[in-house]
Amino acid sequence: MTKPKVGFYSVTGCQGCLLSVIFNEEELLGVLEKIDVKSFPFIKEKVYDGHLDIVFFEGVVTSKHDEEMVKKIRDQCDIFIALGACATTGGVPALRNFTPPENIQPLIYHKALEITDVDPSPVDKYVKVDYYIQGCPPDKKEILGFIDDLLRGKKPLMYSKPVCIECRHNGNPCLLEKGLPCLGPVTNGGCNSVCTNGGLVCWGCRGPAQDANFELMIKVLKEKGYDEKFIKQRIDAFEGLKYKEKEDAKKKWLE
Fold it and tell me: What pLDDT is recorded for position 36?
């Protein structure tokens, strides 16, 4: 069989998601024997400009150049996968959407003012996404397992339950019960509760769970003594745009 042509691309971001792929080391070599990698920052000198069977796209759209690139790559491929928190939810860069412009202005690199900014947004604002691999960064085994499923002709299953399910399965004590601001109840799992396994709270880097109840989450955090400003900042860190989408959709439905 002809090896599928695969491309890895990136726009604004830290490229940590692409590093997660590279850091698979021995496992990666096995996968590379089954696919034809046409484009990959750090590995390929030139950016491939032809048709691709599968594309993994990392980063958040923050400029017209990013927007044009994501649309172009989408047109060139059959299967488009958003890779990591920035591509799936807007990630940390999307915090700019919740910050007054006057706070951002001093941080702008004025020699690059010719760059046309857009509000930082996940890629699905501009193109159709077939699959999402979430996390900041995504788990390397999850990425390779995803590729393996595609090679077998198997439709990858997207985990839809909250982090709490995995956390309980791993026998962890509930950090919310300890009074800590953990977003596990409203965050999509699939990470094997890696942060809470080590006693760290979930920040929501995998985006909202399918049935996330933010109203109840906010109520619980208030009962734990956290004020609205803190709660908003915590949710906005990774889930703010998707949370806003849910709230806007709810208001539209009620109208």
Answer: 92
Measure the CA–CA gap between 125 and 63, rounded to whole angstroms: 13
DSSP structure class, residue 12: B
Q: Which domains does the chain have, with CATH numbers?
A: 5-151 (3.40.50.700), 163-254 (no CATH)
Q: What is the pLDDT of residue 24?
A: 66
Beta bridge partners, 133, equal 83
Rounded to whole angstroms, the Cα distance separating 184 from 200 reads 11
Residue with token string 């923050």:
62
The DSSP output letter for 211 is T
CA-CA distance, 27 to 179, in Å (whole number)? Answer: 40
**CA angle centred on 73, ends 41 and 209, rounded to 5°:** 85
Residues shown for the chain: 255
32 exposed, middle or buried (CB, 10 Å; 0-12, 13-18, 19+)? middle
Helix (H) or strand (E) holding 10: strand 5-10
**What does the pLDDT look like over 12-21, one tens digit per residue?**
888 889 888 8
**Does position 216 have pLDDT exceeding 60, yes or no?**
yes
Task: Give residue-wise pLDDT tens across range 150-193.
Answer: 888 888 888 889 999 999 999 999 999 999 999 999 999 999 99
